[in-house]
Amino acid sequence: MTQRIHDFLLRRREEGRDTEPCLVVDLDVVRENYQTFAKTLPDTRVFYAVKANPAPEVLRLLASLGSCFDTATVQEAEMALAAGATPDRVSFGNTIKKERDIARAYALGIRLFAVDCKEEVEKIARAAPGAKVFARILYDCAGAEWPLSRKFGCAPEMAVEVLDHAQRLGLEAYGVSFHVGSQQRNVKAWDRALASAAAIFRDCAERGISLKMVNMGGGFPTKYLKDVPTVRSYGMAIFRALRKHFGNRIPETIIEPGRGMVGNAGIIETEVVLISKKSQKEGELRWVYLDIGKFGGLAETMDESIRYQIRSPRDGADVEPVVLAGPTCDSADVMYEKSPYPLPVSLEIGDKLLIDGTGAYTSTYSSVAFNGLPPLKTYHI
After folding, report:
1. Averaged over 139-159, what is the pLDDT?
2. How far is residue 102's CA from residue 74's CA, in Å, rounded to a whole number?
3. Which of 304, 269, 309 lies closest to 290 in space, CA to CA?
4. Within a 10 A sphere around the Cβ of 172, how many other Cβ atoms?
5. Are 355 and 310 in contact (CB under 8 A)?
6. Would you please indicate which residues are annotated as catalytic (active-site) residues?
7. Could you give the CA distance from residue 143 to residue 234 in angstroms, rounded to a whole number?
């Protein structure tokens, strides 16, 4: 936790404004993260994944630093433009788009679109004539703590056909993209994906199509309970893989950090609402209920995939495993039960806990009013 966040939370408590959980994001950390990515891969353009945290404060800061933006919807594209980005710095990176949204993005000046099938290509050809398209390929995401599903992407051999179709319809077949999985801790995960991308470049060249760009996606992790490699380690491994598979003809490259850009900039403060047991049997675990849960912003605890670091005012005391749950009247609102979480034995109702690494995928995953609870209160300082 930065000193700025510590001081902010202290003032909040002194003023009696700590009655609900909140997320606090330190923008100085976001600035430092962007500069690290930009310096580590100086020949690669950074397209911040807006979905990770679309707060206007974050977008304005990154736009002022020169960042580009990966957007999943036309609404996110409009947010990036409103924050100061120019259309050439915005990519419509979702492979699932309404045709009218493609047309709206095109009218805004956006010319870079993701595809993974011929049907999507045809929509873009109608709504955004002459635009640049890049084909997303499937990847197994081995090593990622939050692997991506088969929902996005196509087989590499199919990508060649998709790009060829785009070229025939008057679009510019521009490149290839992939994603190695969120929270990817293996710095070598990009190697096989870049090998597939290079093969697609060669196959397209045989058809007279000169691809220009590889979008290497996100996957750069935030530290939770486990240590993660440095951004420099990723940068070195990625550059080696590019040289290995493309030689001296390295194409234009893009990365799309989201979690890695904002995750470690945020802290959630939450309160213990209840501590209880379900029976008096020996070995029965305590249940600790917080005033935030899956529906309040901690959706990534689904399947216990992301295990946040949680700190309490009683750290250093004896701990025991507990089941950690949220406050809502929904039986799915349990964060950690299969692998109980160690918390102090002396923990009491009313204690404030701090959940680290929550700057990404929390405020926007928070429900609007489930059980009447307000969305997660957020502050960007």
Report:
1. 80
2. 8
3. 269
4. 19
5. yes
6. 329
7. 14
* C-alpha span between 72 and 93 (Å, rounded): 6
Which residues, in sequence order, are bridge partners of residue 45? 254
Residue among 371, 363, 230 at smallest CA distance from 297: 363
Predicted confidence (pLDDT) at residue 281 exceeds the cutoff of 80: yes
How many residues in the chain? 381
| d(C-alpha 68, C-alpha 65), whole Å | 9
What pLDDT digit, counting tens, does each position of 316-329 carry? 999 999 999 999 99
In the numeric block, the tokens 């084909």 are attached to 135
Per-residue model confidence as pLDDT tens digits over 295-308? 999 999 999 989 99
- Beta carbons of 144 and 180 less than 8 angstroms apart: yes
- Domains present along the chain, CATH in parentheses: 3-23+264-380 (2.40.37.10), 54-257 (3.20.20.10)
Across the chain, the runs of DSSP E, i.e. the strands, are 22-25, 44-49, 68-71, 90-92, 112-115, 132-136, 144-146, 172-177, 182-184, 213-215, 252-255, 266-277, 286-290, 310-311, 319-325, 334-344, 352-356, 377-380
C-alpha 100 chain-centroid distance:
26
- Beta-carbon-side half-sphere exposure of residue 370 (alpha carbons within 13 Å): 17
